[in-house]
Each structure stands twice: as C-alpha cells, then as structure tokens.
Write a structure and sequence with these properties.
- The structure is a single chain.
- α1 crosses α2, α6 crosses α8 and α7 packs across α8.
- The protein has two domains: 170 residues, no CATH class; 209 residues, 3-Layer(aba) Sandwich (Rossmann fold), CATH 3.40.50.
- The chain has 14 helices and 14 strands.
- 31% of the residues lie in helices and 20% in strands.
- It is globular, with a radius of gyration of 22 Å.
- The longest helix is centred in the middle third of the chain and has 15 residues.
C-alpha cells in the first residue's frame, strides 16, 4: 500500500446560535404571527412537512400542532414532498415516520396522498399544482428549513417557496417544474409557482427554520405570506453565513463516509464537495477545489436512496450493494439530474480504492497529497486531515488538533479503521 502523509484528527468549531428553549420559541412566534386570526374556530389546518434531516423536526412540528389545537383548530400533517419516498403515498408517509412524524407522537392525523389539483398556469406559462388534500383544508402552514440549494445559487434557494412549489406540488408538480427549470432555471420556477400558490389564499404562512454550523436549530420564525418572498431571501443570507465548509483551499482526495437524502437533497452537499449534480467539477468559487471524491456508504436514514453517488469519483462496493435502484432512479429522473445516479468505479475495499484513486490527481508522490476525511457533508465538526495541512490548521482559530499524528489503519478486510464515529 502506498504511504500517505500521517493524519491529524481535527475539531472544527462553529459559533453556536442554538435556541435554548425551542418549544417556547415556536409558541412565541406562532402567537405573534396572526396566523390563527385568519381562521374561524374549528377550522382544519394542513401542516406541510418535508423530508430533510432537520434538527429537532419532530419537536418543532409537535409544538406547532399543540399550539394550533389550543387555538381551537383541527390540524393535520401532510408530506410536502415531490419525488421522495419513491414518489408513493406510503413511501412519503414512511419518510415522515422515520423522523418521528407519526400520529401517536404528533397528536394529530398524518395524511399522505399523491392527488393534486391544477392551479392553472403562471404568467410564465408553468402549470402549477397543489396537494388536493391540503388545498381542501381551511388553511395551510408550511414548516421548512431555509438554506442554500445544492443545484444552483440565487437569492431564493431551499425553503418555504421551494416547498410551496415542489413540495406542495407532489410528484406531478415536481416532474413538471424540473422540466421547466431545464430552460428557465429552478429559482425562476420556484418564484413563479410559489406566487401562483399564494394566489389561492390558502397559505397562512410558514414556519421558517434556520440552522447554524453545528446543525442546531438557531432560528425559528413565523413568516406571513405578505413578506414570505422577501423575508426568505434575508433568512437565506443568514443561513449561508453560518454554513460549514472544508477549511482549506484545495483537497486532493475528499473521503466521505456517507451520503443520504437526510443529509442533502442531492445526497451530498454540492457546495461542500464542489461538484455539480450534472457532473461538473469545482463549479462553486466559494468552496475549496476538490480533485477527487471517494464515497464509502449510505446513511441509514436514506433507506437505500443513493441519489448523488454519481458525483463521487469512486465508491466502496458496500454502497452499491445497499443502494435501492427504484427510489434513486425516480429521484434523479424527476429532478433531471441523470449524472447523480451514475455508478462510479468500485474496488474491493478501502485500501484498493485509495490505491487506485491517488495517482489520478496529478502528483507522483502520495506523501504530497492533501487528504481530508469527513463523516458527511452536513457534519464537518470532526475530520481527519493529512499533516501537510498543519500550517493551515494552526492559522485557523476555529480548528484544533486532537492528539498526535496517526497513520491510516486498515482492518482484516482492508477497510479503514473508523476514526470519526
């Protein structure tokens, strides 16, 4: 086996903005929102919940349900998802269940259907759709995290507007919108369809969630429909300022333990690995240059959906064995990201993969390679970095070396001995 530079285990610190009393924050925002004043007592309220791995999601949603019931309303939850859960009603209910969003825990029904209603065409010519069950309620409130999107950069990316479009539109809407996005861009589609949905008068507002670099809930804000488009843009800028990154300028090999739909909509955050969902290398100027990505597995909460594996240059064979083709292919085809479902080369084990990969980065001596090893693209608080990054580590006040130098270790199967568990 070629010998790489020894590694340091490195702790990356991010400023904490964690909310100390989350239920109180949710209740305070909803109480001041005026949402309940738009409805009569006994009205039905549809709470849209998505499929991302949002911190404290079950607690946030349950608190919102309790608050609505205290106002004399009849809330129910519906999956606000496009092609997730293999684009089936049961699959989408199962996704919510795996986050603890079930009737027994939430105290209200969880209703999952794929039927949609056409809302007509937007001024840009896009036919808009909305979940039939949700639209039949007296009012809809969306619960969504506001964050950067993995496919594009804009002033409006992932959040309430995207949920109003692709989430509320279910599979029929998601497929239609991504086709339009091929020509006019996803941000334009999200804005166009979101405005059409707001025109129904059924949206009460949104509960916007912002997380800090530690993946803690840092802000909860009840956003009224009148300010939703403007305010979401402001919250996106705040979210971007808190987002973690690999803390060096260049990486020869980025080792990623897992991808997953609970980690990112594209499996891996493209703005961490610096890849496009369409296969382009290093498209994001704010991210470090990453020459090769080696991917080792799938998150258990992704349940076999391996969308995004095609952004890796090489994968461990266990990933290919764990991948479920149907949800992976449906997700990728719906979003028009065919490169994201391609299967990269896979050798027998970690040792064989690294041995095959390292000569492809333009260096003759493996000791010269800069290698970073992370758990996933959402958790960058602990990583392993080769010792030739020592100067950069010591110059960064947010980084701390934990212990001394360590050589890569392999077990009897020639797989890496895990350091980041």
């Amino acid at each position: 086996m070629s010998r790489f530079s020894p590694f340091y285990l490195v702790r990356q610190r991010f400023e904490s903005h964690k909310i100390s009393d989350l239920p109180a924050a949710v209740r305070g925002q909803l109480a001041a929102s005026g949402f309940a004043g738009r409805l009569k007592p006994g009205a039905s309220v549809a709470l849209g919940v998505g499929s991302r791995g949002i911190a404290n999601l079950a607690l946030i949603v349950r608190t919102a349900v309790e608050w609505w019931k205290e106002q004399g309303m009849k809330p129910f939850i519906f999956p606000a998802m496009g092609s997730h859960g293999a684009a089936t009603a049961k699959g989408q209910a199962d996704v919510l269940a795996k986050y603890g969003i079930v009737e027994s825990e939430m105290g209200c029904p969880v209703r999952s259907r794929l039927a949609v209603v056409s809302l007509g065409k937007t001024p840009e010519g896009i036919e808009a759709f909305a979940d039939k069950l949700a639209l039949a309620s007296d009012g809809i409130m969306l619960c969504a995290r506001v964050k950067r999107h993995t496919d594009f950069a804009g002033k409006l990316e992932s959040g309430l507007f995207k949920m109003m479009a692709i989430g509320l539109g279910k599979f029929a809407g998601a497929r239609n919108y991504h086709t339009h996005a091929y020509n006019m861009g996803l941000e334009g589609v999200i804005r166009s369809v979101g405005r059409q949905v707001l025109g129904t008068g059924k949206i009460l507002g949104g509960l916007a969630i912002v997380e800090d670099g530690n993946h803690d809930t840092a802000m909860i804000e009840a956003v009224p429909v009148e300010r939703m488009e403007e305010r979401e843009g402001e919250l996106l800028e705040l979210s971007k300022s808190w987002m973690p990154r690999v803390p060096v300028d260049e990486v020869d090999i980025l080792i990623v333990n897992e991808l997953g739909k609970d980690i990112s909509g594209s499996g891996m955050d493209t703005k961490v690995i610096n890849r496009s969902v369409h296969g382009a290398y290093n498209p994001w100027p704010e991210a470090p240059v990453v020459r090769r990505v080696y991917l080792r597995g799938i998150s258990r909460l992704s349940y076999g959906n391996a969308v995004g594996l095609g952004m890796a240059d090489m994968v461990h064979p266990r990933l290919l064995k764990a991948m479920k083709k149907k949800p992976t292919y449906i997700n990728s085809l719906t979003s028009n990201t065919l490169a994201s479902m391609r299967s990269p080369a896979a050798f027998a084990n970690d040792r064989a993969c690294l041995e095959a990969l390292w000569p492809t980065v333009g260096k003759f001596d493996p000791l010269q390679l800069g290698i970073c090893w992370i758990r996933n693209t959402q958790d960058l608080s602990l990583m392993a970095m080769t010792s030739n990054y020592r100067e950069a580590i010591e110059a960064n006040g947010n980084l701390e070396i934990i212990g001394g130098e360590r050589e890569l270790e392999f077990d009897s199967r020639n797989d890496l001995v895990e350091w980041l568990a």
